[in-house]
């Protein structure tokens, strides 16, 4: 489905990103495998993981090149896309997958922990997507695939930085979809459920948390890749501005914010009338304070 395409996959040295890179190559794409080779917290630098994935692709007859630039810096992100241009002469697909975690309860979170996660997930997605935009405009086509999370779409404890960044990515994706539509460019998000290095860092102190992690271990990272390949293909030309979720063999189209219910008062509202009239009318539709496992409460199929 991707014959002749050039795909950039960030954070592709392992986990979901590696599966994306391998699947894109298996479907005919030439791949830029980007990974700085850092820890889950974003520390360190090692060219080995990216090169290992490149070697896997080449061993199967595919074409790929390793890149170790960071998504979290504007100039560095430019080099990621330029690597595709220098090596393959074009860029057709950007998969914004790179990510780190600095989990901490909000009341204990440091400025550094906040900024580090925002820089990689939200700023990094913008930087790499923006670097590819002129090329997509000039050729009149392109595909953006961004990784979001139910931590942002629904909620999770101890992840204010990650949740804010991931929900921000969905708004970024929709804005890209709107701004780039006239150039035949699409932009979509995927929220994955899968066992990976990042999932392995989730705290598991209580029996409930441990049971949740055991469920995660049954969800293979490779289950996410087929959707990414489809969204990268010409066949997905009419799909843009959407948020998908993959949970083992389940594929979801996620809702987006729209008016849910309204109340009108001819004289305008006062604090008292809001308390006495508006809130009682709206209360049945208020969202409960739920976390991801509360909403996705059934075992994966």
From TrEMBL:
Signal peptide: none
One Pfam family it belongs to: adh_short
Domain Ketoreductase, chain residue ranges per copy: 5-201
Superkingdom of origin: Bacteria
Family: Belongs to the short-chain dehydrogenases/reductases (SDR) family.
UniProt name for this protein: SDR family oxidoreductase
């Amino acid at each position: 489905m991707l014959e002749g395409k050039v795909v950039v996959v960030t954070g592709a040295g392992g986990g979901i990103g590696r599966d994306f890179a391998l699947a894109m190559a298996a479907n005919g794409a030439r791949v830029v495998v980007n990974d700085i080779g850092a820890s889950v917290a974003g520390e360190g630098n090692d060219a080995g993981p990216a090169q290992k994935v490149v070697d896997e692709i080449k061993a199967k007859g595919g074409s790929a090149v390793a890149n170790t630039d960071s998504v979290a810096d504007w100039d560095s992100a430019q080099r990621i896309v330029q690597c595709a241009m220098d090596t393959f002469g074009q860029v057709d697909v950007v998969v914004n997958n790179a990510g780190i975690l600095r989990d901490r309860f909000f009341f204990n979170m440091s400025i550094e922990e906040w900024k580090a996660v925002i820089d990689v997930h939200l700023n990094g997605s913008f930087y790499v997507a923006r670097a590819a935009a002129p090329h997509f405009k000039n050729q009149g086509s392109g595909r953006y695939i961004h990784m979001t999370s139910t931590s942002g779409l629904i909620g999770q404890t101890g992840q204010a930085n990650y949740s804010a960044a991931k929900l921000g990515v969905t708004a970024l994706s929709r804005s890209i979809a709107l701004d780039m539509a006239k150039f035949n460019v699409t932009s979509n998000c995927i929220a994955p459920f899968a066992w990976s290095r990042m999932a392995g860092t989730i705290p598991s102190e209580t029996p409930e948390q441990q049971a949740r992690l055991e469920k995660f271990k049954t969800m293979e990272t490779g289950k996410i890749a087929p959707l990414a390949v489809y969204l990268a293909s010409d066949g997905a030309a009419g799909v843009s501005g959407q948020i998908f979720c993959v949970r083992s063999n389940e594929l979801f189209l996620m809702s987006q914010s729209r008016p849910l219910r309204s109340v009108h008062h001819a004289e305008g509202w006062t604090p008292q009338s809001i308390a006495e009239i508006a809130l009682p009318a709206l209360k049945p539709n208020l969202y409960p304070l739920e976390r991801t496992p509360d909403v996705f409460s059934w075992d994966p199929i």
